[in-house]
Amino acid sequence: MAGAGFREAVLAVVRSVPAGQVMTYGQVARKAGFQGAARAVGSLMKQNFNPDIPCHRVIRSDGSVGEYNREGGSEAKRALLRAEGVRINRATCGI
User: Fold this and answer.
1) For residues 26 and 60, is the Cβ–Cβ distance under 8 A?
2) Which residue of 46, 57, 67, 89 pairs with 17 in a disulfide if CB–CB is 3.0 to 4.6 A?
3) Which of 25, 31, 21 is CA-nearest to residue 61?
4) pTM here?
5) Domain ranges in the chain?
6) Which amino acids are annotated catalytic?
7) In sequence order, what are the beta bridge partners of 24?
8) Above 90 in pLDDT, residue 86?
9) 3-class secondary structure for 59-73?
């Protein structure tokens, strides 16, 4: 699952998430064609430092932002999402 096909599919999905919207790790996995690979998506996002991949728009299924590998951690991720108009709560991800 951690092959190039998985990586490229996940990155394509994350690239498509518009500003002001979020997807959960599980939603990204499903849309990329890898049902049940939410943790693998999280691992891939943890390794992403490409500014063209808006990994801050991928959140946990409980509506919390989760981890962020950039300076400032989760608080920086939360600030980026707020700046894009996202309110972080359970309704954010439709649960």
Assistant:
1) no
2) 57
3) 25
4) 0.88
5) 4-93
6) 55
7) 59
8) yes
9) ECCCCCCCCCCCCCH
